[in-house]
Structures are given as structure tokens and as C-alpha cells.
Amino acid sequence: MLLHAAVVSHALGALAFTVLAVLFRVHGRRNRESPPLFLPAAATALWLMAATLQSALDAGLELTGLTELGRNAAWLWFLVHSLRLLKPDAALSPWLRQIIRGVALLLTLTLALQVLQLFWPGPTLAFLGQTVLPALLAVAGMVLVEQFYRNARTQDRWGIKFLCLALGGMFAYDFYLYSEGMLFRHLTPEVWAARGVVNALLAPLIWLSFSRLTQFLPVSISHRMVFHTVALVGTGIYLLLMAAAGYYIRMIGGEWGLLLQYVFLFGAGVLLLVVVFSGSARARLRVFLSKHFFRYRYDYREEWLRFTQSLTTGNPGMQVCERSIEAIARLVESPAGVLWLKKEDGAFHRAAYWNWSDLNGTLPADAPLVRFLEARQWVINLEEYRADPASLEGAEPPAWIVDEPRAWLLIPMLWHDRLLGFMVLEHSLGKVHFDWEVSDLLKTAARQASTNLAQLLAADALTVARQFESFNRAAAFVVHDIKNLVAQLSLLLANAQKHKHKPEFQEDMLATIESSVARMNRMLLKLADRQESASNGRVELEELLRDVVASKKGYSLKPELEIADTQLEVLADRDKLARVLGHLVQNAIEATPYTGRVGVKLWREGGHACILVEDTGTGMDAAFIRDRLFRPFVSTKGTGMGVGTYECKEYIQGLGGDISVDSAPGRGSRFTVRIPLAEPDANGMTREVA
To answer: Which of 117, 359, 609, 679 to pair with 390, CA 20 to 30 A apart?
Structure first.
């Protein structure tokens, strides 16, 4: 009986490794980079064939010992070869190099003893060659397996771990067999007979590791086959465990043992039937197998490229909401969808729709569904909810969604675990079955789309903030100009008490008031229309400077104008340029005592017009000029706004020019403005002169 078991055992092992060797050979021809496992598998198959023949003939065959030595040599060569691939000879530790030399010596010594035994048979040589040395080779094999796994990179261990388990188990079983033989001076027949089945059980582990290393599986197994196979194997294991448990109960139960065994087995059978016919258990088993044993339904690389392209198609910032709905809907072949986003009041309002205009409503910010979506982050299948309303734990979707028969999926749009909005999709045209994979895909896509939507909302908020900033900035400049006008009118009012009866003063007063009113009206118009179009034109600088100087004649310190070059024209807005130059002259007057001097000079320098505004006032130090002069809202005047010089520099630089400052405390200041000149080209059109 034991001989028949040994024949069947070794025959099964031989068949398993023969199939394995054929697969390795076929794939080795297709892929030259596959692991060299054909030779070890073929040597193992040959050894198991010889062991089968030995068991069938019930006779000792020297061929079995030689083929087993060949099997050991092949697997040890594979491990040493793999170690040398992982680490060159120079990188191997001295201890590991000694192990490799010892393995080579053991193989040579074992072969020598096997050959000697053919010519000089004897118990001593047989004991050494067939028991002691194979046990030492098994120990060497386990050491090499451990070193192979230890020296592998962390990212490679996932692929080789089952191979290491198989080889370690094979050498460990051999060590147990031969160590027991060393102890009792003979090999245990039962352990020897089971050796073939043990090796057959290790073959799938070697193949699984090979498939991970090469990403090659020539046979495709269906979901249904694996499901029923796993269910059948699981049922068998369960029945075996229950039978063992029932036998144990019978042994310890005494007089009641048989009764307790029958009751236990009946209860175990009922429990098995409940689990087998449980739809929930079958569904969970399918999900587990699909997640861990099969490739996914989608080609995620292709799906993600198409999804990203859908999100980014079109003009930037245009129809992002509609594109997000369409991109997510196409993942499940849905023909329509609607998007809700959180608004300023905290509630969720419809923001966009795609092929579905009649679904509309508002979800309050304090609705239980909002908290549920933020906490669970589930994609809600509305069909399942309609069948089982208790599945959402009291977080009911609004009735205007549930009562809509076209509504299929409710997808949360999350941004940093906060609900940015949600999307409702119509039923799939392709009858896509909603499962864990579809849910994960939609949640991931919704996260990506939420990023785009959050950027859109942030851009809108930034635009509004910039509009307010622009308005406030314009208001600051207007207030600054109004301050200058108030200063002129205050000076006019102060002189009115003394000269109000003079006709010349009255005419000058009316002209000043008229000019001030006109300037204030223009400022109000520009403040109301901040997106005014450019009004640059040809400005004759001599005329402009005479007007600027004339506007300051009400001060006791009259500016002096010097025109070195005439007929100099630039491209600019006349009013803005007059305001800029007027501000520089105004600052010079205010910084200079009435006994001092303020001068304005115009000349040409290459392709630029140069305007110098100089005074003999208090002056400024280098640190103030460098760090504070042209910064907004910084002023040395008690009533100053600190935006005048900043506006001057910004506008002159906008014309392509610049402003330079030369000043020192007690020595006065010199502001030099350089602006590109404008000349007519050959067609009479205005252009700038470089």
C-alpha cells in the first residue's frame, strides 16, 4: 500500500514539474530576460521520474541518487547565479563567498561518493553519500535562499517571495528527511513517500513567482471559474475542519460524545448552507476575488488620459463645470448629468448641467446628506437607495432627486475632505453594473474634477478681489489728486481776502475753479470706468510743461522753466502725464522754502526727451530713496497719501521711460524723467523712436 502511495506521489510531482519545465522553456524562447528556471525544473522532473520508477520497481536505483544530486545542483546553481546578479563578486561578503565555495565542495564530494559507491558499495559510503551529505546540502540550500531574499531589493521581494518560500520548503523537507535518517540510520518510508506530493504542492508557488517576475500568464481564468473553485475549496476545508472538530468532541464527550458530535455536525451543516445561500456572502467573495486576483475592468491609463483631455479641452476658464460633468459621465457611459456647487449662503445650488436641464433644486447646508457624504465619501446608487432607504443611515437625498426616475448615481465632489458640491448622473446607456471598481473610479475622477472646480472658484474670487483692489487703488490716487486740488483751492481762498476786489484775481480764481472742477469730473469718470481704453496720443512737451508751471503760479515760490530743445513730442495720455509732472513740481515746491528755487528743464538726449525737476529744498538721504520713496502709502508729509511718486514711476515706466533721483539732505533734489520720443514714420503714422 505504501509503495503504491509513493508511486502516485512521485508521479504527481513529476507531472507538475514537467508542465512547469515546458512552460519555462516556451516562455524562455519568447523572452530572453526571463529567470533561468527551466534547468532546475527539468532536473526536478527527471529526479521525480526516477523516484517513481524506483517506487514502482521496489528496488534501489543508483540513478535516483544521481538525479537527486542533479536537482540539488541545479537549484543551488540558480540561487548562486541570482546572488551574483544581485551583487557582483566584489560586493559579496567574505562569509557568503565561503558558503558558495562550501556548496561547490559539497556537490563535488557527494558526486564522488555516489560514483565510488557504484564500484565499492558499502554501508559507510552509503550513509555518507545518501544521508549526511544530502542533509548538509539541504542546510546550504536554506542558507542560500535566505541570502537571496535578504540581498534582494525591497521592490523585488514582492516577485521572489513565493519562489523563496517554495525552495525553502523543499530544502527544509529534505533536511527533515535526512536528519531523521541520520538519527535512526535509515530513511522513514512514509516521509519518503510523501516527498513527491510535497514537491508538487510547491510547483504552483514557483509558477506564481515566475509570473510576477515576467508579467506573463499564458492561461486566462474566468471570474466565474475562480469563484466556484474558491467556494468549493473553501467548503471542503470547512467540512474537514468541522469533521476534525466533531471527532475531537466525540473523543472528549464520554457517554454524550456521539450525541454531541451529531448535533455539532448538523449545526455546522446548517451554518454552511446559510453561508452558501447568502447573497451578501457571495457578493463579498466576488468583490474579494475581483480586487485581489484579477486585472481590473478598465484600462486606467487610457481612461485617465481621456478623462484629463476632456477636462482640459476648450478655452481656459470656460465651461469647466460642463466639461467636468461630461468627463465623469463618459466613464460610465451616462448620457446626462447635473452639477451642484456650494455658494456663498452655504447651500448647494445647481451650477451647470449636461443634456439634463429640467433637474433643479437646492440642498441646504445643514442637510444630513451633506454630513454623510463628507464622512463616508460614498458614491450613492440611487436605485439601491430606493430599494432600501435605510442603507444611508437617515441621510436621505432630497425628494426632487429621489423622485426623478432618470437619476442613477449621486457622486460627491470633495476638496480637502470638504463637500465642494455633488453630481447626479443619468442611467448608463451601456448598462454598466455599479460595483466597487466603478465606485472607486468615479470617486477618484470626482476628486480630480473637484481640483479644477476649486481652482475655478478661487480664480473667480481672486478676480473679484482684484477688482476691489483696483477700485481701492484708483480711489487712493483720486484722493491724492483731490488733496492737491484742495491745496490749490485753499491757497486761492486764502488770497481771496486780500485780492478779491481785483479783476485780475477774479479772472484767475474763476479759471482755477473751472480747471479744478474739470479735473475732478475726469477723475470721477475714470474711477467709475476702471477698464478705460488707452487714450495715448502725441503730446508736445513744451506746451505741456508751460501749462504745468502756469498751474503753480498761485504759490509764492514760482517754478522756473527752461526749454533747451523745442518740438519734442511723446506718445502718452496728456492728462496723466500732466498729473505726473505736476506732482513732481508740486513736491519740489512743498519741499523748498519760499527763498529757495524750483526749476524745470526740457532737453533732448538721443531718442528720449529728458525733463528735470530740481529744487533747493530739504533733500532726501540714500536709504529713503532706495527703500521708501517709490513705495505706495509711504510719505514724509503729515497730510500726504504716499501714492504720488509711486504713480509717477509706474506711469513713466509704462511709457517705456524711467525716473532717476539725485538728492542729499540739505542739498535739494533732482528728479530726471526720460521718455521715448515719438516721430512719424514713412507713412505718416506715429511711432516711438528707439
So the answer is: 359
Work out whether strand 569-572 and strand 418-426 pair parallel, antiparallel, or are unpaired.
unpaired
Q: Which of 586, 558, 688 has the alpha carbon at shortest distance from 647? A: 586
* Percent helix, strand and coil across the chain, each to the nearest 5: 65, 10, 25
For the domain covering 533-688, report its CATH number: 3.30.565.10
Q: Please tell me the pTM assigned to this model.
A: 0.38
Beta bridge partners of residue 688, listed in sequence order: 678
**Amino acid symbol at 472:** N
Domain ranges, ordered by start, for the chain: 2-219, 224-293, 325-532, 533-688
H or E stretch covering 285: helix 279-293
Q: Classify residue 559 by its DSSP letter.
A: P
Determine the distance from the C-alpha atom of residue 441 to the mean position of all C-alpha atoms in its chain, rounded to a whole number: 15
CA atoms within 13 A on the CB side of 473: 11
CA distance 497 to 34: 107
Q: Is 59 left (phi over 0), alpha (psi -120 to 50) or beta?
A: beta
Burial 68-84 (b: 16+ CB within 10 A, else e): bbbbbbbbbbbbbebbe
pLDDT digits (tens, 9 = 90+) for 292-313: 555 555 556 667 777 777 777 7
Residues of the chain scoring pLDDT < 50: 90, 215-221, 317-318, 530-534, 638-641, 684-690
Q: Which helix (H) or strand (E) holds 22?
A: helix 2-30
DSSP secondary structure string for all residues of 211-277:
HHHHT--SS---HHHHHHHHHHHHHHHHHHHHHHHHHHHHHHSGGGHHHHHHHHHHHHHHHHHHHHT
All cell numbers assigned to 131: 544521508
CATH topology match: 325-532 vs 533-688: no
Mean pLDDT over all residues of the chain? 78
Cβ atoms 648, 483 nearer than 8 A: no
C-alpha–C-alpha distance, residues 387 and 85, integer Å? 60
Q: Which residues contact 537 (CB under 8 A, 6 or more apart)?
A: 571, 572, 573, 574
Cα 177 from Cα 187, distance rounded (Å) = 7
Q: Classify 426 as helix, strand or coil.
A: strand
Cell of 123: 554501508
Per-residue model confidence (pLDDT) at position 597: 93
459-503 pLDDT per residue, tens:
766 765 666 566 666 666 667 667 777 777 777 777 777 777 777
CA angle, 452 then 455 then 459, to 5°? 140
Q: Which residue has the cell 504552483?
A: 204
Which grid coordinates are listed for 180?
A: 531523521
Plot region of 656 (φ>0 → left; ψ -120 to 50 → alpha; else → beta): left
CB 349 within 8 A of CB 400: no
**CATH architecture classification, 325-532:** 2-Layer Sandwich (3.30)
**Residue 128 and residue 636: Cα distance in Å, rounded?**
105
Strands, sheet with 608-615, edge to edge from the N-terminal-most edge strand: 560-563, 598-605, 608-615, 668-676, 658-664
CA 465, chain centre distance (Å): 29
CA distance from start to end of the chain? 109
**Residue 25: per-residue pLDDT:** 82
